[in-house]
Amino acid sequence: MRALVLDLVHGGDIIAEELIRDGYRTVCADVYHTADAGVVGNAERAGAEVCTDVPPGHYDLVAMPSHCPDSFLEGATWDERITFHQAAGRYMRKKGRLVEITGVKGKTSCAYMLAHILSLDGSRVFLHTSRGQGPWEGGRHIIERTMSIAPSSLLRLPDGYDITVAEVSLGGSGRADAAAITNLAGDYPIAAGTRRASDSKASVLCESVNVVPADEIEFWSGYGNHRLTGYGGRVSVSGMPRIGEPLPLTLEYDGTHRISMDGPFLALQYVGAADLAAEICHCLDVPAEQVASGLGSFRGVPGRGELAREDGVWRVTERNPGISSVSVRYTLDILERMGALGNAAATVDPVSRKVCDKMDAESIGSILREYGVRAVFSDGRGGTPDIPGDSDLVIRFVKEAFR
After folding, report:
1. Contact 343, 203 (CB under 8 A)
2. Measured between alpha carbons, how far is residue 264 from residues 243, 307, 316, 344, 355 in Å?
3. Own/partner long-range contacts of 30-37 (Cβ < 8 Å, ≥24 apart)
4. With b meaning 16 or more CB within 10 Å and e meaning fewer, what string describes 192-209?
5. 306-400 has the same fold as 2-84
6. Would you give the DSSP letter of residue 215?
7. CA nearest 245: which of 346, 314, 332?
8. CATH class for domain 306-400?
9. Most buried residue among 83, 101, 226, 262 by CB atoms closer than 10 A?
């Protein structure tokens, strides 16, 4: 049997290893010409032939990322074609319970919050996100290694844990015990405009629990006969949000619970993630007291709405791979709701580090001007730009993975 794997960058070496173990003579094509020597070496040591273009001919199986356009397959024919998401589902060896989270915004925040809640009953929890992977212990994520959130990484999850919470890019394996889609937030084109992001994200939907936004149930029901649960409304703000003060919340979960979120982060920014985490917990039969305790003791995610007070100035840091015009507008909306934008400035690092989708600096600058926030763009070399001295709030935006 002969197999073709497109694109080594997004875990093609892992997919190739599984196919070779399954008896396929495997060719890996680095169609984007960006794979480093380590990835190429992994594929070759597994027994794959590695090239930069697709060798014409017939293949029994073609495996390719969902974002890869069909134009790369010119000159090739095949009996079966699957995405990397489908390959992950086919070759996954389940290790304890698995929760997969995909979507546009809020994946990492929800995954962190869910891992924290689930750990409170003594369960051993493994957390895999765009910040890295490792166990959740003592109320924090112990990052042991950094690894892509491409679906192929699901094939390398470790043993020895009761439950794994995994953030997955553009979909999932379809094999989880609970799957969640945070939101659609603009169904952007992929695969050179030949498919939509939703076509790929729907791969996360599994045979058991599936949680999606309540107002998107009708949309996602078009992707098969899956049992869908809508989220939205379990967690709500019950007081006036103010920067630097605890955020009072109401949790509707087998009764009404009054809680507050407090810590070095913009709690208001996490309400949507808390709502989704609570709904997932309800589907998994997690006790209400555990959920309330987890939300109240959660301490935020590094690089997601980090908040600090220095020399009388509030500083908000957004340093993560999800920085975009959508996320910047969301952060500004949050700060505006708290009345904190009256004399604000923002610094933007225009360099996109270790990410595929690049920052649209021009669009972000336009949004900052729309909100009356003074924008300062750095030189992209790591230096700290001069901030207007009369600012009482400074927001820092850096698009960077593995932080």
Report:
1. no
2. 10, 5, 10, 19, 26
3. 31/6, 31/7, 31/68, 31/72, 32/7, 34/9, 35/8, 35/9
4. eeebebbbbbbbbbbeeb
5. no
6. G
7. 314
8. alpha beta
9. 101
Q: Which CATH superfamily does the domain covering 2-84 fall into?
A: NAD(P)-binding Rossmann-like Domain (3.40.50.720)
Domains of the chain, by residue range, sit at: 2-84, 92-297, 306-400
57 phi-psi bin (left φ>0, alpha ψ -120 to 50, beta other): left
64, β-bridge pairs:
83
Sign of the four-CA dihedral 269, 272, 275, 281: negative
- Rounded to an integer, the average pLDDT of 345-361 is 72
**DSSP label at 185?**
S
What secondary structure, in 3-state letters, does 118-181 show? HHCCCCCEEEEECCEEEEEECCEECCCECCCCCHHHHHHCCCCCCEEEEECCCCCCCCCCEEEE
CATH of 92-297, picked from 3.40.430.10, 3.40.1190.10, 3.40.50.2000, 3.30.465.10, is 3.40.1190.10
Question: What's the rounded Cα separation, in Å, for the pair 228 and 221?
Answer: 8
